[in-house]
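Give me the fold.
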Amino acid sequence: MSKRKNNGLKLLAKGKVFQVREGEFIVKSERGDGEYRVVWSRDRWVCSCPDFRKKGAKCKHIYASLYYMAVRDVRNAVMALRDDRKCMYCEKGDEVIKKGVRYNKSGPVQLYYCKRCKRKFSARTGFSGMKKRAEAIVAALDLYFRGLSLRQVAQHLRASYKIEVSHKTVHNWIKKYVRLVNEFVKSANLNSDRWHADESVVKVRGEHIRIWTLLDSETRFVLAIHVSKSRGADDAVELFKKGFKVSKKPEELVTDGLKSYEKAAEQELPDIIHVQSSLREGMNNKMERFFKELRRRVKTTDGFKTQEGVEIFADGYSIYHNFIKEHGALNDLTPAQFAGLFDGRDWLGLILRATKLKGG
């Protein structure tokens, strides 16, 4: 993530963005000694700040306004779910009426009755049992994987939603919903002809932890993530086995010269073409671009204290990469959209799909 994008997220987290009207925002300076006007004019965003006037490129104030709109749209979508009258059994909405209210730990829940099915149901959003507002939880997920730290996310919730939560609570939300959505991701079915495999290293209390990653060449879709302390053939085998759950066996595998890949390929992929290349040859540059993005995001986290924390982060970032982040090389589509797996581009839709898949 660029410095301007990251600073824009920080302005949003600190409650510095205010919408005047559609297409116009006021963004307070970080030190609170000034403000800048962001306006949609002549098919582009313009800002009154010196940075924009000098370079003409999107500044942090424009990015802050764009992120504000993204979070607002998520919030509105969740609010709309609260009055969703589509029957969960027959999936028709023409004969559904409100039928009382049920109370749980989250507060009042609207009940509905379908005259067609003769059954009563409640609108299930995937947030049952959560004490805080669903839109704040979705916003927390979105902002964390876009580049805010846990503490910055908590600060944003306090400034924008008047919700007092600790960064540990935010982390618990992330763990809960990354695990839920990950089950949906595993149900994907991709026909990948070429796999790219590589690993990157992060530190946990001074110890090296490796993030093994498997990527589809055509769509840039992350097929599998495996986290370990070691760098052996068993880890490469585990990575390939996870890949088999979402893709057929490829015709070609591209890796660096690590012997672990060679041994694992002989065991799990004996009949394919295995191309082992050095970084200089550029054969695995798609994988390198993914890790470049990942390392940038790691720099803005609060750090990892356990291997489990690395696993949650890696799984969540791969979800963000696959389903949320647009890619210029894919005509500004997400890998999931490019592969025809998922039309949406938001955490809310993923959570709803995952909840339906789980039957909750």
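The chain has three domains: 3-80+131-185, 83-122, 194-340.
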